Amino acid sequence: MSKSFVTLTRDVAQGLDALRRDIPETMQGFNAMAKSALRGGAIDELHKELIALAIGVASRCDACIGFHVKALIRLGVTRAQLMETLGICTYMGGGPTLMYAAEAVRAYDELMARSAAPATA
Question: What is the pLDDT of residues 74-84, one digit of tens each?
Answer without folding.
Answer: 999 999 999 99
